[in-house]
Amino acid sequence: MAAKDRISRAGEAARAAQRNRYLQRLVEDEELRATLMTAYGAARNAYGRMSNGKPATRALFEDRKLQRELREAASALRDASSALREPPKRHRRRGGVGRTLLLLTVAGVLVPAVVKVMSVRTLPRGLKIRVGEKVAKSLA
């Protein structure tokens, strides 16, 4: 009976983790994970320097490496918390091959049509000019 209880509680915990948006964000966002790992590493190094036998106040005020590691850990934690509050960054799709093919098709249809329209243009008083020719026909 106790085993069934444990299994059901584990299943409930897994479902709750799936519904938690922060855990989902942590699983999906590689940059957030890297920031948290940086903060963890810096905090762990700072703890190691704090527990070397010196009094904590003396280590905090005199140990420059400890101060740098604490600053790094605080900065990484600040970055991670702001990243968790912001919505996840969405990657914009550029269209790829489909968009390029569409643009080439439209250009292939429009360019000949525009050239045809531009080749003979009617001007006021019946004056015609052909594109590419140097001499214009007059009203004669």
Fold topology:
Elements: H1 2-19, H2 21-28, H3 30-50, H4 56-62, H5 64-85, H6 96-119, E1 120-122, E2 128-130
Antiparallel strand pairs: 1-2
Q: Percent of residues in helical segments?
A: over 70%
Q: Count up the helices.
A: 6
What is the number of domains?
Answer: 2
Shape: elongated
The proportion of residues in beta strands is: under 5%
Element order, helices and strands? HHHHHHEE
Number of strands: 2
Structural class: mainly alpha
What does this structure look like?
The structure is a single chain. The chain has 140 residues and is mainly alpha-helical. The protein has two domains: 11-85; 97-130. The protein has six helices and two strands, in the order ααααααββ. The chain has helices spanning 2-19, 21-28, 30-50, 56-62, 64-85, 96-119; strands spanning 120-122, 128-130. Helix 3 (30-50) runs antiparallel to helix 5. The chain is elongated, with a radius of gyration of 35 Å. The relative contact order is 0.07. The model has no long low-confidence stretch (mean pLDDT 78).
Distinctive features:
140 residues; two-stranded antiparallel ribbon; mainly alpha; 2 domains; 71% helix
Sum this structure up briefly:
The chain is mostly helical and 140 residues long.
